[in-house]
Amino acid sequence: MTLFLLRRLESSLSRTRLESYRINSCTDLEVLVNYYWNVALGEALYSSLHASELALRNSIHAGFSQRFGTNEWYDVPDLLESNDLDAVKQIRDRADKENGNPTSDQMVSRLSYGFWTNMVSGKYDQRIWSPYRYAMVTTVFPYAKGPNGRQLGRNVLGKHYTKGKALRNRVAHFEQIFNSDRLIDNHAAIHEGISWIDPVLQSITESTNSFPDVYYNGKAKIRSQIQSFTAQGVP
After folding, report:
1. Contacts of 182-191 spanning 24+ positions with Cβ under 8 A
2. Rounded to whole angstroms, how far apart are CA atoms 158 and 118?
3. pTM over cut 0.70
4. Which of 29, 57, 185, 197 has the fewest beta carbons closer than 10 A?
5. What is the spatial distance between Cα 72 and Cα 105, in angstroms, rounded to a whole number?
6. Phi first, then psi: what are they for 26, rounded to 5°?
7. 54 CB neighbour count, 10 Å cutoff
8. 3 state DSSP class of 151
9. At what angle do helices 183-197 and 154-172 cross, to 10 degrees?
10. With pLDDT > 90 as the criterion, what percentage of the chain qualifies?
11. Residues 103-147: pLDDT tens digits?
């Protein structure tokens, strides 16, 4: 019956995709368990990824608006690199076709996560971060302290959020994450990044987060659910 279910799903999910979850020649049941556990893990990561992305972009926007004296800091001449300028232009061009020029709040919400992690990259070190002894780092990441209590550097922060983007993109594009031996550490790193901006947001996100339970117990629950489903007969 499990084989029949697997074949039944191939037309919608694709055989290639499903078979990529057959780890170490596992059974048909385990293919389905791996697949739906992967889905559940992505779902469980959503609240953490959501908090991380929104906190990062809103803190950068607030800090840059203060630094450059305008909510439309992305229009400051010679500030952005060409690819980031293109991202701003694409949003404006799309908005012109819909309902006019977007507000700064709309721009912030529509710019991709890659745009925001670019803002923390080394290419903006001289133009944005290093002036005034890296005061902008403290403004955007007020709680980013190392074990010695000193402010973390822009380079450390940039690498951290860029790594987080990789997991975020895998989840967003429905790629495999269940077979990563770093997933629990990556989840903890996401929360560390949130805490560097807003510890209260990190705390409430953690307290309402289902990821640890899905990670440690979800696979067994999904196996039981699939076995119950197949026992009833596949339509």
Report:
1. 183/41, 183/215, 184/212, 184/215, 187/45, 187/48, 187/211, 187/212, 187/215, 189/160, 189/163, 189/164, 190/45, 190/48, 190/49, 190/52, 190/164, 191/48
2. 8
3. yes
4. 185
5. 9
6. -70, 170
7. 18
8. strand
9. 130
10. 88
11. 999 999 999 999 999 999 999 999 999 998 899 999 999 999 999
Tens of pLDDT along 129-141? 999 889 999 999 9
Both tokens assigned to 105: 């709040």
Residue ranges per structural domain of the chain: 2-9+27-231
Cα–Cα distance for residue pair 7/173, rounded to 1 Å:
23
Cβ contact 120:60 at 8 Å: yes
Q: Are 169 and 118 in contact (CB under 8 A)?
A: no
CA angle in degrees (0–180, nearest 5) for 78-168-46: 125
Is it the case that residue 158 has pLDDT exceeding 80?
yes
Which helix (H) or strand (E) element contains residue 81?
A: none
3-state helix, strand, coil in the chain (%, to 5): 75, 0, 25
What Rg do the C-alpha atoms of the chain give, in angstroms? Answer: 22
CB-based contact 196:51 (threshold 8 Å) = no
Tracing tokens 């002036």 back to the chain, one arrives at 131
CA distance 214 to 177: 13
